[in-house]
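Risk register update: the risk of archive-format incompatibility is retired. Evidence:
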Amino acid sequence: MTPEEEEGVIKKAYEFISKHGLEEAALLILYSVKPMAPLGGALGRFFLGPLIPFIGHREETIITAFEQPENIEKLIQMIETKRREDKERKKEEQRRAAEKKGPKTGFRRFWPF
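Archived output:
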Protein backbone atom coordinates (compact mmCIF):
# COMPACT_ATOMS: atom_id res chain seq x y z
CA MET A 1 0.00 0.00 0.00
CA THR A 2 1.41 3.38 -1.00
CA PRO A 3 1.61 6.33 1.41
CA GLU A 4 -0.94 8.20 -0.74
CA GLU A 5 -3.45 5.37 -0.34
CA GLU A 6 -2.83 5.32 3.42
CA GLU A 7 -3.43 9.08 3.60
CA GLY A 8 -6.65 8.60 1.63
CA VAL A 9 -7.91 5.94 4.04
CA ILE A 10 -7.01 8.09 7.06
CA LYS A 11 -8.75 11.11 5.52
CA LYS A 12 -11.91 9.08 4.79
CA ALA A 13 -11.97 7.80 8.37
CA TYR A 14 -11.51 11.36 9.66
CA GLU A 15 -14.33 12.66 7.45
CA PHE A 16 -16.66 9.89 8.63
CA ILE A 17 -15.87 10.58 12.29
CA SER A 18 -16.30 14.35 11.99
CA LYS A 19 -19.44 14.04 9.84
CA HIS A 20 -21.21 12.02 12.51
CA GLY A 21 -19.82 13.95 15.51
CA LEU A 22 -17.96 10.99 16.99
CA GLU A 23 -14.74 12.77 17.90
CA GLU A 24 -14.73 11.97 21.63
CA ALA A 25 -15.68 8.32 21.18
CA ALA A 26 -13.14 7.91 18.38
CA LEU A 27 -10.35 9.40 20.49
CA LEU A 28 -11.19 7.09 23.38
CA ILE A 29 -11.13 4.03 21.14
CA LEU A 30 -8.05 5.09 19.17
CA TYR A 31 -5.99 5.78 22.30
CA SER A 32 -7.07 2.40 23.68
CA VAL A 33 -6.34 0.42 20.52
CA LYS A 34 -3.13 2.15 19.43
CA PRO A 35 -0.68 -0.03 21.43
CA MET A 36 -2.21 -3.24 20.06
CA ALA A 37 -2.64 -2.08 16.44
CA PRO A 38 -0.30 -4.67 14.84
CA LEU A 39 -1.99 -7.50 16.73
CA GLY A 40 -5.42 -6.14 15.79
CA GLY A 41 -4.43 -6.03 12.14
CA ALA A 42 -3.30 -9.65 12.21
CA LEU A 43 -6.47 -10.78 13.97
CA GLY A 44 -8.60 -8.76 11.57
CA ARG A 45 -6.96 -10.46 8.61
CA PHE A 46 -7.42 -13.85 10.24
CA PHE A 47 -11.12 -13.44 10.93
CA LEU A 48 -12.05 -11.41 7.85
CA GLY A 49 -9.75 -13.32 5.47
CA PRO A 50 -12.35 -15.84 4.29
CA LEU A 51 -14.99 -13.11 3.93
CA ILE A 52 -12.96 -10.53 2.00
CA PRO A 53 -13.83 -11.95 -1.46
CA PHE A 54 -17.52 -11.60 -0.59
CA ILE A 55 -17.50 -8.19 1.13
CA GLY A 56 -14.90 -6.47 -1.06
CA HIS A 57 -11.29 -5.46 -0.69
CA ARG A 58 -11.98 -2.11 0.99
CA GLU A 59 -11.66 -3.73 4.42
CA GLU A 60 -8.22 -5.07 3.52
CA THR A 61 -6.97 -1.56 2.79
CA ILE A 62 -8.45 -0.27 6.06
CA ILE A 63 -6.79 -3.07 8.04
CA THR A 64 -3.46 -2.47 6.30
CA ALA A 65 -3.58 1.27 6.95
CA PHE A 66 -4.54 1.09 10.61
CA GLU A 67 -2.29 -1.75 11.72
CA GLN A 68 0.53 0.80 11.87
CA PRO A 69 0.47 2.91 15.05
CA GLU A 70 1.83 5.91 13.11
CA ASN A 71 -1.33 6.07 11.03
CA ILE A 72 -3.51 5.87 14.12
CA GLU A 73 -1.49 8.75 15.58
CA LYS A 74 -2.07 10.78 12.40
CA LEU A 75 -5.82 10.25 12.73
CA ILE A 76 -5.71 11.22 16.42
CA GLN A 77 -3.82 14.43 15.57
CA MET A 78 -6.34 15.33 12.85
CA ILE A 79 -9.26 14.85 15.25
CA GLU A 80 -7.60 16.82 18.05
CA THR A 81 -6.77 19.68 15.68
CA LYS A 82 -10.40 19.86 14.58
CA ARG A 83 -11.61 19.82 18.19
CA ARG A 84 -9.25 22.68 19.09
CA GLU A 85 -10.42 24.74 16.11
CA ASP A 86 -14.07 24.06 16.95
CA LYS A 87 -13.51 25.06 20.58
CA GLU A 88 -11.82 28.32 19.55
CA ARG A 89 -14.58 29.08 17.04
CA LYS A 90 -17.28 28.43 19.63
CA LYS A 91 -15.51 30.63 22.19
CA GLU A 92 -15.26 33.42 19.60
CA GLU A 93 -18.98 33.09 18.76
CA GLN A 94 -19.88 33.29 22.46
CA ARG A 95 -17.72 36.38 22.86
CA ARG A 96 -19.39 38.06 19.87
CA ALA A 97 -22.84 37.16 21.18
CA ALA A 98 -21.99 38.64 24.60
CA GLU A 99 -20.74 41.86 22.98
CA LYS A 100 -23.83 42.08 20.80
CA LYS A 101 -26.16 41.51 23.73
CA GLY A 102 -25.06 44.62 25.60
CA PRO A 103 -25.38 45.46 29.29
CA LYS A 104 -28.30 44.27 31.41
CA THR A 105 -31.09 46.74 32.00
CA GLY A 106 -33.92 47.05 34.49
CA PHE A 107 -34.18 44.62 37.40
CA ARG A 108 -31.99 42.05 35.57
CA ARG A 109 -28.88 44.07 36.30
CA PHE A 110 -29.19 42.98 39.96
CA TRP A 111 -29.32 39.26 39.13
CA PRO A 112 -25.96 37.50 39.23
CA PHE A 113 -26.73 35.39 36.16
